[in-house]
């Protein structure tokens, strides 16, 4: 999956599929989230108001009675949830502020933070993708507070996503923040658009990876990382 996307990027191909062409294939077209230039000109309050209105229309088209006590608050709830929670990572103002610390204890081995739970949404169906992220880096002299790694994973997850792009966005962000290429990310996720609809496969997971620097060049580093996250069998394939 990663290879396909990288190839497309290298060739500078801008895919312009119709919705039907993309269908259930979950093909991503770039590692930048496709946003319009004016994406953040509208204040959040107005976005919430508009989404509320449009979601009300969708519910109404479905034939739901919006005067019902249980339903009447739903459009507003959905609108607030989109802007303030599940899609808050679209807006750069919500990007976590990260402070680095000097690596005083001269720890030069890889640091692995594994089993970071994340929740995202598939951009083709707007249903949840959830799973675990495993992140590793080798310090170049600076270290990052561990909870900041969780926050970075959460930030990029809080967008409509495809898993390949999400993995690359986290990898690239950490590379930039930490000032080292020696970054690895693995994401192991369950896609509800695969389990709850369509092919209805409840057992399959999707694994994507990002390897930079020594994780890309040195097989031993990669194997070590995969063994820490108990995916060692993949490394030995
Ligand atoms: Zn989907």
Task: Walk me through what this model shows.
The structure is a single chain. The chain has 237 residues and is an alpha+beta fold. Helices cover 40% and strands 20% of the residues. It is built from 10 helices and 7 strands. The strands form 2 sheets. The protein has a 5-stranded mixed β-sheet, with helices on both faces. Strands 1-4 form a two-stranded antiparallel sheet. Helix 3 crosses helix 4. The longest helix is centred in the first third of the chain and has 18 residues. The chain is elongated. The N terminus and C terminus are likely disordered. Zinc ion binds next to loops.
Relevant terms:
7 strands; 237 residues; alpha+beta; 20% strand
Major sheet: arrangement of strands: 5-2-3-6-7
Average pLDDT for all residues: 88
Can you give the helix content as a percent range? Answer: 25-40%
Strand portion, in percent?
15-25%
- Tally the helices: 10
Any ligands, ions or cofactors bound here, and which?
zinc ion
Whole-angstrom Rg: 20 Å
Question: Main β-sheet, in a few words?
Answer: 5 strands, mixed
Helix and strand string, N-terminal first?
HHHHEEEEHEHEHEHHH
